[in-house]
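User: Assemble these into one structure.

Assistant: Restating your components, then the assembled model:
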Amino acid sequence: MYRITEEPLSADAVAQAVTVPEAGGVAVFLGVVRNNTAGRGVVALEYEAHVPMAEAKLKEIGEAVYGRWPGVRQVVILHRIGRLSVGEASVAIGVSAAHRQDAFEACQYAIDTVKRIVPIWKRELFEDGSAWVGLQGESPPPGWKAGDGR
Amino acid sequence: MYRITEEPLSADAVAQAVTVPEAGGVAVFLGVVRNNTAGRGVVALEYEAHVPMAEAKLKEIGEAVYGRWPGVRQVVILHRIGRLSVGEASVAIGVSAAHRQDAFEACQYAIDTVKRIVPIWKRELFEDGSAWVGLQGESPPPGWKAGDGR
Amino acid sequence: MRVPVALFARYREAVGRGRVEVEVAAGATVEDVWAALARAHPVLMPYRPHTLFAVGTDYVEADRPVRAGEEVACFPPVSGGGA
Amino acid sequence: MRVPVALFARYREAVGRGRVEVEVAAGATVEDVWAALARAHPVLMPYRPHTLFAVGTDYVEADRPVRAGEEVACFPPVSGGGA
């Protein structure tokens, strides 16, 4: 199950989805909206996705997990979009395996890879403004004017 | 929260218990009753604990986590005892941290240490019998009679 | 040929909508599509160094030719996933 | 002195109950308590090599003296935690 959704995520939903009779260990990761970024108070986050591409990438990640950890039984990766309050989960990953080491490793690989390749963007809403998160500045660099560049 | 309980465990219960506004990552581990051990069909498990000592050891593990991973915000370790069916969780661990790496590492340390030091024992109930799990044989060694030994 | 372009995050906001079309010559590459996009919406120009491109559900390099009927997506580095 | 002994898992089953008492001399160690226990319940004897001991909520070594009023727990290697 690999899905971009506007619905709230829960640990139970992913844990239950990956629990199968031959799996003895279930690792779950939840990415949760924090109340601050580098000390600046965060009120909420807004997530936006290239939905069809994001779901395709989630599926790729899941298939890579099955390939790298043959002991893994089930993988579920869900990512929420829209506006999320502090304490709500933006991403929920569940991995079950016969043995726990595989479940932990695969779950960690999955979240690391989600952050690296899945086309989702977040904007932080502060008490006094907002900013997209990422490598680029919040807006065109100071001094830049339309017509500059090539 | 460090508890030995006869009640069913859930991923949500531990995830919610460790979710705090300053934590961005929550790692959960569930140990689940498998339908087989080395290929022999398991019907259920029975867990027994030295309850006061087990709860003291769970607390020691939680305190060791806070000491080793200063980024960890909350730790919850619950272990169920009594009779559990296939697919039910015997142990549920939740760890929250500002950053996910700490949450994963600490959660893994916690379950590894639970298995090593907490006085809990399990017996596997098969379709055709039962056996305590552990280093010692299922019963006194073959040929042994009362009066042998010292 | 006319090529639909999908924009996300700050690119979408800068342009004011998430989908535009640009006109490029047959045989144009993704880079040519970007150039046409940036000419029509110069606010995007400074973003080029970190821009990612996709066609369909796959990332593509800027030198990939665009075929008729394909949509090109342009977006900033991703930032999903939480902590 | 009389020392209460708590038994768990296969030890409890082998003896038929989870709590017994043994009589040992003042100054006796945990090992002495085990010896008295095994004399009363020889079925336990072969388990000695892997036996763990605790007093209160802490593991103890076999050479630890037992004080009046303390309970000694004897049990096999632990096996909690699931997969």
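The beta strands of chain A are 2-5, 25-32, 36-37, 40-49, 72-80, 82-85, 89-97, 120-126, 129-132.
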